[in-house]
Amino acid sequence: MRRDDFPQLSDTVYGKPLVYLDNAATTQRPRAMVEAMTRAYYHCNANIHRGVHHLSQQATVNHEAARKRVANYLGALSEKEIIFTKGTTDSLNMLAFSFGEAMVNEGDEIIVSRLEHHSNIVPWQMLCQRKRATLKVLPLDASLTIDTTALNSLITERTRLVSVAMVSNVLGTIQPVEQVIRIAHNRNIPVCIDGAQAAPHLPVNVRELDCDFFVCSAHKMYGPTGMGILYGKEEWLDRLPPAQGGGEMIEHVRFERTTYNVLPYKFEAGTPDFIGSCAFAAALDYIDNLGRDAVYAYEDELTCYMEQQLAAIPEVHIYAAGAQKAGAVSFNVYQGERLIHPFDIGTLLDRQGVAVRTGHHCAEPLIDYLGVPGTVRASIALYNDHSDVDRLCEALRRAIAMLS
Ligand code: PMP
């Protein structure tokens, strides 16, 4: 699909054509997104919301149109439910602070799963320390999937929120979040979905999912860095206090008392990234122009092909083999009983022009559970194709031969 739209992909590494399979960390950016960003900087650059002059008003219109675009892309009921943040990590920290202030007291409980990214663990852990609350961990079943049957017994009358990933950033596996949401809602518990790895691959619709909060990062979706989304149902965002104070988020400021702005501005203190929002909207247009269902079908086939081809290498052990995945496959290489350190594999692949990610992938509790020092993760995007996978497997075979 449209490799030519991504200038970075025609570069070489160590004199070899680049095979970029580190998309779960960040995607490459299409020309259309970068051009939208340049256009906004060159021709629509003025601070928004407060200006009476033409340029400020035009920049405001563009920023708010981008918000509408994101709301539409994620299936939100209203653009009031879309808060621009710096990324998934920022969204989760904001939510943990704001939700924690309003909803969590000593002795309360927050539930996350064993496979979460540190971003969906540490902010909740910090909240629990602050409030003397307890962080509870949903276990995984034998196939490394969130064990939804354990959720019912984990929830108590002190549970305030469940926060889980829709797609594991380590394993690439699609998690049963619909079930998590159903079970939690039956007990009147709200659910936050970490969609950082889901939004780039799956046709997510927050209204159909019925999640209470959803977070994602633009840079994993062909958009700009430093831009992310915190979606929250209006009824929730209305109840929660702002996470930060400053300009934009206020209605009136008096030394005695400050009143806050309406949604979504209550959660957007300071000058927002009105350039990034336009660029993000252009990235979403780019995906929609290709067709989200077509992108999903294309990537699904490619992910299956990648898993099949890797599984055909006898030294390769794939994690969550056979489970339904979205974009990523994690593995390790064994020579007999001996695990070849993932860094060694990553380095030998890099020398052959193949970029993959190695290590704990910011999910140390899961990596500890797997009992390994890390994994090698190959992750695809819409511009990858079978030839990239073939080059990965050739390079891997050569690396294994060098190490034996
Ligand atoms: N959650 C998941 C599942 C992720 O994959 C990532 C990024 N690796 C994050 C959270 C954090 O995203 P960011 O670094 O863009 O804030």
Helical amount:
25-40%
Principal-axis shape:
globular
CATH class of the largest domain: Alpha Beta
CATH fold field value of the largest domain: Aspartate Aminotransferase, domain 2
What are the salient characteristics of this protein?
404 residues; alpha/beta; Aspartate Aminotransferase, domain 1; Aspartate Aminotransferase, domain 2; 2 domains; five-stranded antiparallel beta sheet; 18% strand; binds 4'-deoxy-4'-aminopyridoxal-5'-phosphate
Q: What would you note in describing this structure?
A:
- This protein is an alpha/beta fold.
- The chain folds into two domains: 3-21 and 291-403, Aspartate Aminotransferase, domain 1 (Alpha-Beta Complex); 32-288, Type I PLP-dependent aspartate aminotransferase-like (Major domain) (Aspartate Aminotransferase, domain 2), CATH 3.40.640.10.
- Helix content is 39%, strand content 18%.
- It has 13 helices and 18 strands.
- The strands form five sheets. The protein has a seven-stranded mixed β-sheet with strand order 4-10-9-8-7-5-6, sandwiched between helices. Strands 13, 14, 15, 17 and 18 form a five-stranded antiparallel β-sheet that branches. A two-stranded antiparallel ribbon has the order 1-2.
- Strand 8, helix 7 (206-209) and strand 9 form a beta-alpha-beta unit.
- Helix 3 packs parallel to helix 4.
- 49% of the residues are buried.
- The structure holds 4'-deoxy-4'-aminopyridoxal-5'-phosphate.
- Residues 87-89, 117, 119-120, 165, 169, 194, 196-197, 217, 362 line the site of 4'-deoxy-4'-aminopyridoxal-5'-phosphate.
